[in-house]
Amino acid sequence: MRLFIALGIPHPLSELLNGLRGSLAEVNWMPPETYHLTLRFLGEVTDRHLMEDIHYALSTIHAPAFDLFPDAPGLFERPASPAVLWMGVARNDSLFHLQRKIDTAMRRVGLAERRRRFVPHITLGTIPYPDPSRLASWLQRQAPLNSSPTRIRTFSLYNSLRGKETPTYEVLEDYPLSP
Fold first, then answer.
1. pLDDT-derived band at 166, boundaries 50, 70, 90
2. Does the active-site annotation cover 55?
3. What is the DSSP string of the chain?
4. Which of 28, 72, 132, 168 could form a disulfide with 161 if both were Cys (CB 3.0 to 4.6 A apart)?
5. Is 62 an annotated catalytic residue?
6. Where is the active site (predicted)?
7. Active-site residue (options: 55, 62, 97, 121)
8. What is the domain count for the chain?
9. What confidence tens digit (pLDDT) does each residue in 119-163 have?
């Protein structure tokens, strides 16, 4: 299974992000049911004992629930790959605290340390050939996105299933945050 740990994006934030669909023509927009904020990518995990260790480690994490606010959109550009359009998340100490706890728990079960700096974001879509001027204008119009707070009460272990168009994400387990 191809696993990752993430926050699901509940209403009304998912609806607000869904409202951006179609606002930039060249984007291959992700469906709203796929919106999530990745806390840690685990990759392929086939060992049943490792799966049990991951579940146990995640179930022992204690962290408070918190509010999530969207911030400004951005773009990850990678050579020879479509650019990734995303919505940023406002700086939140509780979110970073949870992410560090998850990283520590995954190192303890024997998974390698993450190589990239944590940049909290929600993927909106991909752009095979972005038009720089149109994209810059769109990014400027969307920043910052105004929204009321979205309360995050759980984090989840997901399985990523490859699809023809977009991946499908299956929640394997939810882990509660403290009220």
1. confident
2. no
3. -EEEEEEE--TTHHHHHHTTTTSSTT-EEPPGGG-EEEEEEEEE---HHHHHHHHHHHHT---B-EEE-EEEEEEE--TTS-EEEEEEE---HHHHHHHHHHHHHHHHTTPPPP-SPP--EEEEEEESS--HHHHHHHHHHHSSPP---EEE-EEEEEEEE--SSS-EEEEEEEEEPB-
4. 168
5. no
6. 36, 121
7. 121
8. 1
9. 999 999 999 988 889 999 999 988 777 788 899 999 999 999 987
**pTM reported for the whole predicted model:** 0.93
For residue 58, what are the domain limits? 2-176
CATH of residue 12's domain is 3.90.1140.10
